[in-house]
Amino acid sequence: EVQLVESGGGLVQPGGSLRLSCSASGFTFSSYAMHWVRQAPGKGLEYVSAISSNGGSTYYADSVKGRFTISRDNSKNTLYLQMSSLRAEDTAVYYCVKDWGGDSVFDYWGQGTLVTVSS
Amino acid sequence: DIQMTQSPSSLSASVGDRVTITCRASQSISSYLNWYQQKPGKAPKLLIYAASSLQSGVPSRFSGSGSGTDFTLTISSLQPEDFATYYCQQSYSTPKGTFGPGTKVDIK
C-alpha cells in the first residue's frame, strides 16, 4: 500500500524558515517524480514544486521560486521542502504527491501538513 | 502559462441527480486533463486521468470527456458520498500541473 506521510509543519514567524519532510513507502520511491501542492485555508489547490526521480531536475512555481528548495533522499525514501523567507501568504496545508509516470498525474497524496506563517 | 477555469463554482443537487462540471483550458491541452475529488479535511483523490480514463477503484458513475480546451466531468447518479469539491488539472505543460479553481457540489 502506498503511503506518504508529511511532517515538519507548524507555526513560524514571517521571514522564518521551515523544512517539510515526506516519508514514502509501498512503492519504489527512486523511480518516481514527486511534487508538493499546497492549499491555503478555504482555498483551492496550488501547485508548488516538482523533482525528478533522481533529483536531477527541479521546478518551482513563480510564487515560491528563490525561497523554497525541493530535494529528495532516495536512500531514505524521503522528500523534502525547505522553505525560507516565509510570508503570510505561504500559510497552507502542504501535500506531498506522487507522480504516476512522470507526466504530472497525481495518483497518491499524503494527508498534508499545516504551515502557519504569523507573528 | 496555461490557465484553467471551471464552471459552475458551486452547485446544489439531490441524490440521484445527473451532475455535469465543465473545465476549460486557456489553450489546447489535447487530452492531458485530470479530475480530482476532495472531501473536507481530506487530501484530493484522483478520479479521472487523460480526460476520460477512470482511475482504478473509482465508481463507474463518474465519467470524463473532452479534448483540446473543453472538458466535462459527469456524475450519472449523485450519491451521498459524492458531495465534495472537484478540481480539474492540466498535465500538458509538465512538470507544472495547474489546477482549476474547483467546483463545490453540495446537497440541495
Report on the architecture of this protein.
The complex is a heterodimer of chains A (119) and B (108). Chain A is mainly β and 119 residues long. Chain A is built from no helices and 11 strands. In chain A, the strands form 2 sheets. In chain A, strands 2, 4, 5, 6, 9, 10 and 11 form a 7-stranded mixed beta sheet that branches. Chain A has a 4-stranded antiparallel beta sheet with strand order 1-3-8-7, with no helix packed on it. In chain A, strand 4 and strand 5 form a beta hairpin. In chain A, 39% of the residues are buried. The model of chain A has no long low-confidence stretch (mean pLDDT 97). By secondary structure, chain B is mainly β. In chain B, 0% of the residues lie in helices and 47% in strands. Chain B contains no helices and 10 strands. In chain B, the strands form 2 sheets. Chain B has a 6-stranded mixed beta sheet, with no helix packed on it. A 4-stranded antiparallel beta sheet of chain B has the order 1-3-8-7, with no helix packed on it. Chain B is globular, with a radius of gyration of 13 Å. The mean pLDDT of chain B is 96. At the A-B interface, strand 5 and strand 10 of A face strand 4 and strand 5 of B.
Q: What is the multimeric organization of the chains shown?
A: heterodimer
Head-to-tail CA distance between termini of chain A: 40 Å
Q: Which two chains touch over the largest interface?
A: A-B, 24 and 24 residues
Helix content of chain A: under 10%
Kindly provide the radius of gyration of chain B, computed on alpha-carbon positions and rounded to a whole number of angstroms: 13 Å
Class by SSE composition of chain A? mainly beta
Record field, number of beta strands of chain A = 11
Give the overall pLDDT of chain A as a whole number: 97
Overall, the morphology of chain A is globular
Number of DSSP-assigned strands of chain B: 10
User: What is the terminal-to-terminal distance of chain B?
Assistant: 36 Å
The assigned structural class of chain B equals mainly beta
Question: Using only CA atoms, what is the Rg of chain A?
Answer: 13 Å
Amount of beta strand of chain B: over 45%
Strand content of chain A: over 45%
What is the N-to-C order of secondary-structure elements of chain A (H for helix, E for strand)? Answer: EEEEEEEEEEE
